[in-house]
Write a structure and sequence with these properties.
The protein contains eleven helices and eight strands. It is of the alpha/beta class and 274 residues long. Strands 1, 2, 3, 4, 5, 6, 7 and 8 form an eight-stranded mixed beta sheet that branches. Strand 4, helix 6 and strand 5 form a beta-alpha-beta unit. The radius of gyration is 19 Å and the shape is globular.
């Protein structure tokens, strides 16, 4: 398997637990006002959701553009089936589900009005080529919206050495898979390199600091670092032992139990007008 085909997180339950928390409101808020304005002018609007994953954001976007339509794209049938099941559970119909490669979209030029990609460019082999393809398939006056985490900009309190180890391990694994875990800070430069000129860059954060939020986030990462595809990769590549990963998991639980615990995750965003 080549690096561009490796999804660092995988689709273990501990990963999906966090990804299913995502909504258009908490993960695509930078897009929603412009999307509503465009949908009002183009009631037959067509939105392409690249990397639809568990489908929670896809479902929200489908409701936001109705009676327009949505196409959800994933790299494989397994990931696309996650989207399919979530849409069915929410009673969202009319979404086209396709397998494809964002580096070479199987769509004509100027064929969609909006392309949305959440936490996608950090994982692909060539983010600039992916953005060129998004630009190619978007009609003039349409929108391309991308949002990605910036792992090196994550910050927390109190300082827990095991969380520093977690960050180093994750960034090393992501880069070994051909990705860029600090993608958030690079979105603007990638978009400019892809030929966009009308750009609206921004950033946003997720913050986990209440007892419930800490227990949820710390607990899921304690599970992810020991049971997900990331854990298997770290061990198989000799980057960590199972005991090392258990210590990192214990660090996440220590942070979650601390009443002073606070964590902020930075995301870069770019809204581009074609």
């Amino acid at each position: 398997m080549t690096p561009e085909h490796v999804y660092t997180h995988g689709h273990h339950e501990s990963v999906l637990r966090s990804h299913r928390w995502r909504t258009a409101e908490n993960s695509a808020g930078y897009l929603l006002p412009a999307l509503a304005e465009l949908a009002a002018r183009r009631p037959d609007l067509h939105l392409l959701d690249v990397g639809s994953g568990p489908g929670t954001i896809t479902a929200d976007l489908a409701r936001a553009v109705a009676p327009g339509r949505v196409t959800a794209l994933e790299v494989g049938e397994g990931a696309l089936d996650l989207t399919r099941r979530e849409l069915a559970s929410q009673g969202v119909t009319g979404v086209e589900l396709v397998v494809g490669d964002v580096h070479a979209l199987d769509l004509p030029d100027d064929s969609v009005d909006v392309v949305h990609a959440h936490q996608v460019l950090q994982h692909v082999a060539d983010p600039v080529q992916a953005l060129r393809e998004m630009r190619r398939v978007t009609r003039p006056g349409g929108l391309v919206a991308v949002r990605d985490s910036d792992y090196s900009a994550f910050t927390w309190w109190p300082r827990v050495p095991e969380l520093d180890a977690w960050l180093d391990l994750y960034r090393d694994a992501a880069r070994a898979n051909g990705g860029e875990p600090d993608a958030g800070r690079r979105l603007l430069s990638w978009a400019r390199a892809a030929g966009f000129t009308d750009l609206r860059p921004s950033s946003a954060t997720w913050c986990f600091a209440t007892p419930d939020d800490r227990a949820w986030w710390g607990g899921l990462w304690a599970d992810r670092i020991t049971t997900s595809a990331l854990a298997d990769q770290l061990v198989s590549e000799g980057r960590a032992t199972r005991d090392d990963l258990e210590r990192v998991a214990a660090g996440w639980r220590t942070w979650a139990a601390d009443p002073d615990g606070w964590l902020s995750l930075l995301h870069g965003e770019v809204l581009a007008v074609v």
